[in-house]
Design a protein that fits this description.
Layout: H1 2-16, E1 17-19, H2 37-51, H3 55-67, H4 99-112, H5 119-133, H6 166-174, H7 180-187, E2 194-196, H8 201-204, H9 219-228, E3 239-241, H10 252-258, H11 265-268, H12 274-285, H13 287-301, E4 304-306
Length: about 325
């Protein structure tokens, strides 16, 4: 009986996340209504990134976190109001930043195409521009998303955690129609960005009753991490870059996994399944293969829609109409 109930719950979760039909999204969606949209968004991303090198990683992470909760509906952009605590104030999203980039792009777009372009589309475009600006691939982003009206901090518990093992990762991604290849390719987004000590503390202190440090970590790398993040770390901004070239979109992330120098447990977990391990090796040895897979998986992920998908075009990305 318990197994049947678990299967029913899994089925309900899976049907609540689907990919939008190809007819719903189109790369030419704004061709006649707002042809300037892509140049306006890329300009806003470029300007922000020139002033703050952490912006590209922030925008890519923001889009990922948006799509994994209620689909890609811009719900991560909404601010808390009254008794409702919004997604951006949920524990996994506290460190999200650069929301102003989306707000600036929206303001500029509204000046030329009022009431036409969704905040969800702006975020999807900004994530693509963030990757490309960091030396990564460029792709045509299908557009036509609508903005959601619901944003709840409690739902951020659905986001895959940096402590997840491969079974938990596979379940989280499959619930959203994403495959193991999508999991490995999208994990490559960790080539950009920074991790606070709290997100990998489990690997370098009290790892298990018998081992203080995760034995899959390279010993000298682990020692360095323990120096940066002591067991009772009190430095709020202490942490480590996610890879050795954390402002450059490349395949160094996969090479570091194979060397035992990944940051998160969820990164190292990719070596515990034969298929994902093979893909890590493939992407470590061939940057072009990684980029092609990443683009394919990004388009797939950015087409996720949840139950009661987006319903409007917001005038301001922080607030529903």
């Amino acid at each position: 009986m318990a197994a049947i109930i678990a299967l029913l719950v899994m089925t309900i979760i899976m049907v609540s996340f689907t990919s939008l039909a190809s007819a719903a999204l189109s790369v030419d969606y704004y061709q006649h209504t707002c042809p300037q949209v892509e140049s306006i968004v890329s300009g806003a991303v470029y300007k922000a990134a020139m002033n703050d090198i952490t912006v590209p990683a922030a925008l890519l992470r923001m889009h990922f976190h948006d799509c994994f909760i209620r689909g890609c509906d811009g719900s991560v952009l909404l601010e808390s109001k009254g008794n409702n605590k919004a997604e951006k104030d949920g524990p996994p999203n506290i460190s999200l930043h650069a929301f102003y980039v989306i707000d600036n792009a929206k303001k500029a777009i509204e000046a030329v195409c009022p009431g036409v372009v969704s905040c969800a589309d702006i975020l999807a475009l900004a994530a693509r521009d963030a990757v490309h600006l960091s030396g990564g691939p460029y792709w045509d982003v299908p557009k036509g998303r609508k903005d959601g009206r619901i944003s709840k901090a409690i739902e951020t518990r659905q986001l895959p955690a940096p402590t997840f093992n491969i079974s938990q990762l596979q379940q989280s991604f499959s619930q959203r129609g994403l495959s193991l290849e999508d999991l490995v390719a999208l994990s490559g987004g960790h080539t950009l960005g920074f991790a606070h000590c709290s997100s990998f503390q489990n690997r370098i202190h009290n790892f298990s009753p018998n081992k203080d440090v995760d034995p899959s970590l390279n010993p000298s790398f682990a020692t360095n991490l323990r120096t940066i993040c002591p067991s009772h770390n009190k430095a709020k901004n202490a942490g480590s870059p996610l890879d050795s070239t954390n402002t450059l979109f490349d395949n160094a992330y996969y090479k570091l996994i194979l060397q035992g120098k990944s940051i998160f447990s969820s990164d190292q977990a990719l070596l515990t399944n034969p298929k994902t391990k093979s893909l890590v090796s493939k992407f470590a040895n061939a940057k072009r293969d990684f980029e092609n897979a990443f683009v394919k998986s990004m388009i797939k992920m950015s087409s996720i829609t949840g139950a009661g998908a987006g319903q409007e075009i917001r005038l301001h990305c922080k607030h529903v109409r």
